[in-house]
Amino acid sequence: MSDVHSATKSEQYKNEVFILLDKAKELFPLSEDLLRDLQMEIEDMTMLFDEQSMFKSVPNIIKILIRDYDVSAKDYLRGMELEKDDIELLSEFGQYTIEALIVHVLGMLFNPLENYSIIRVASLVERLEYSVRIQALLLKSRRCKKPFSMVKDEVEKVKFSGKERKRSKLVIMYPFGSGLVQFMEERGLITLTSDLIGTVRVQKKKGAYFLPSNLFALCNFDISLLPIKLNLPMVCPPLDWKSASQHGQEPRTLSDLSGGYLSGPTGEIYDRYRLLSTGDIYNFYIDIGRDNNYMYLCSVMNKLQRQPFQINSDWLKYIQINEDLFVEYGYLMPKFLSSMNIKNVSFLLREFYMKDEVINKICSFNELLQTLNKSIQRARYEQLIIKLAIAYEGYKFYLPAFLDFRGRIYRSGVLHFHERDLARSLIVFADCNSMESRKKDNVIAAAAFHYKPFKSVNNALLWYYENKLQIESNSLLFTLEAKRNFQFIANQIGIFTGKWNCLPIIQDASASAYQIMSYFLLDESLAKRTNLIPSPDGEMQDVYSFLLEELKEFMKAELANNLSTIVCDIIDRKIVKGIFMPIIYGKTLMSTANDLKVHLSHFITHKECYEIASVCFKFWRTKYQGIPCLIRLIRHIGWIVSARNSPVFYRVPFFTTVQDYMIMEPINIWVYDRLHKKRRRVTLRVSSSKRDRRKTEISTFVNFIHQKDAHIAMCVVEQMLSIGAPIYTVHDNFISTAQYSDLIPSIYSNVICNMDPPLSVINEFIYMNVIKPFVKGNSNKSSMARKEISKEMLHYYLKANVPENISKKMMATWEERISGILTSYDNYTRIVCGDLKSPNPMDLWIAHEKKWEKFKLKLRSGGKGIPNYCVHY
């Protein structure tokens, strides 16, 4: 921190938070009130839009925008053809507020850790338009002294201002966004350019194609001068999430809850800090408006975000002392790279490149520049993480939690377990109790798995003790081949110093999507391959290794000898995972073929890559018939609901997910390019009022699985919290301490065992989306869920979904979809009930329950005396 006084004003601004945290350490220990005051100051600096601080911190950029004899941005916009309400909106701003807002928006759009000074004009227009409108509304609410709750609906409506404006030549679309881009270009802050270098052809039918022409804004200033806007950890507990509804009303959606950061929502902060992380909260949200569901959700999230963390001081000091060695071994980039100006250094690089005949024959200048760009970006990231760690050292800090519309848990910022290896390695749990010495093996095993994968924990422990002397003699040299270098060394330091009780133990659900599929299909073989049912040999199973071996055998039978020999020699687990992990989420044959070209094009032709992809899909349909059957069933229902012009609903205990994809329609606006003296077209895509059947069909199964995955994770978290265990979750990763880490696999298995029978979950999904809209009065949903839906009943309600007055072509499509659902549901019930021919639907349900109980018994008893690896290191 000592060099901050000689730094530029911009650098001083960026270091203000670090200086603030550093100075407060002189008053340790801080009271709760002082910590809250400190947190408010941090949020004011990093989250809020403050006009005065912007003028002080980025004077060089402000000077470009504000000139003595030129009009301000506010007057510039007034000179355009605006509607009356837009002119009134501008009156809320001060003379130069919009200039400061422009810089604020640029700070939001350009990642301070990256080095790219170019952005799509469409993105810039959209963000500027939205920011001006929402900031004006919030300024108005302050002037009128209205509470935030009274303007919340107005704030949400801002997002729809663009698409609700009339499609008329008399009305300018996105007037503020397009006007401010033109203003920035005229002031020389940006240059408009059409960059087609490296553009990928967009294929059309019958071999035709076109090159998409995007308009970009190139910054004419050093983007490192922009203010950093980061979501930082909190030094005091986050506000509990609770109802923000008025007049005793119960909240219906997550937007009706308030909590997390201490600051009230201002500007785009309203979008960035709320429990629901999804952008379009009208089309994608969580419904909690029944049976006080919000109280359960708030309880789990509040306990989760009140878990304190701290910086791993021993590891941080080790990095600081050995920084030169870390650079020498390649773990860290040289520090000086983080302060490089890529715009200035690129001219020097080109000069040296042109003079060096050896280098310019090996690679192009663009490749060399790109390598330098990545190195600078990586160096900036590393230095920021280390600076943050130094600043937060000594504090207990907290990580506010957020959800997406499927219920998946996220954290914001750069210093948390969602981040890369370096950031993860610097965080440990706070307030940990001492543990039994035998728990140390959990830490050692976790450390070994940071180095490489093993078949079992015993193998990991054996490997560690065999290599212990080498590890201790030179950790940095030994760790060069490690999978996660920083976390491996951090764990070693904790083991060496005996401070391992607070180290985070990270465990991952074993191919969680396939685990969930095994539950829905009651497929014991798939459950064993994903470790949901423990293996008798006590070793971890890997579903992708099984798929690799089976695929090779299938290819030998399907392909010509020469081709199959070449492909089988090259294809590996990584390629197979790249095919069969996304395939359950809707990856297409053509997309798979394109991916295979990357790996195999040096050895086989593009046509053969497509042939290989076709064989992979045939293998999938032939060997794993149940999975494509279930995928078709869920996706077809998604299509039916969207084609009926309704949203799709997904239900789990305590909340319902609502998904409503709309067609994004192109809207053209025009900005004047002063340099080239011509108008430039900018195409923006805005949500229409028409539902997107194709997107809904593709996404329905993805979101269906992700919601179940999120619910399982939330239940695991709830049970861990109930026993007072420290816990953190990253989707299907679970992070705890050595004392509790070995409890997570059994808790995970029990959560799945406590789920409803899979047929009832599928039936409920069908009921909510296909049957319920056409049932009159109060129907007994539970009785319908707990029996097989007869073919006649399902066909009746599917036909009821067909809109009136549709074309013959569309009617044929509907008939095809209905037939697909009937066939898929029939095949699915045969899989989960057995091939029982009975006219009584209850007989099939009884058979299903027996099969479900047998499956649960395998989950619960299969691991007696055998390690449970359903969640593993």
TrEMBL record:
<comment type="similarity">
    <text>Belongs to the phage and mitochondrial RNA polymerase family.</text>
</comment>
<dbReference type="InterPro" id="IPR046950">
    <property type="entry name" value="DNA-dir_Rpol_C_phage-type"/>
</dbReference>
<keyword id="KW-0804">Transcription</keyword>
<dbReference type="GO" id="GO:0000428">
    <property type="term" value="C:DNA-directed RNA polymerase complex"/>
</dbReference>
<comment type="function">
    <text>DNA-dependent RNA polymerase catalyzes the transcription of DNA into RNA using the four ribonucleoside triphosphates as substrates.</text>
</comment>
<dbReference type="GO" id="GO:0003677">
    <property type="term" value="F:DNA binding"/>
</dbReference>
<feature type="domain" description="DNA-directed RNA polymerase C-terminal">
    <location>
        <begin position="502"/>
        <end position="746"/>
    </location>
</feature>
<dbReference type="InterPro" id="IPR043502">
    <property type="entry name" value="DNA/RNA_pol_sf"/>
</dbReference>
<keyword id="KW-0808">Transferase</keyword>
<protein>
    <recommendedName>
        <fullName>DNA-directed RNA polymerase</fullName>
        <ecNumber>2.7.7.6</ecNumber>
    </recommendedName>
</protein>
<dbReference type="InterPro" id="IPR002092">
    <property type="entry name" value="DNA-dir_Rpol_phage-type"/>
</dbReference>
<dbReference type="Pfam" id="PF00940">
    <property type="entry name" value="RNA_pol"/>
</dbReference>
<dbReference type="GO" id="GO:0003899">
    <property type="term" value="F:DNA-directed RNA polymerase activity"/>
</dbReference>
<dbReference type="GO" id="GO:0006351">
    <property type="term" value="P:DNA-templated transcription"/>
</dbReference>
<keyword id="KW-0548">Nucleotidyltransferase</keyword>
<keyword id="KW-0240">DNA-directed RNA polymerase</keyword>
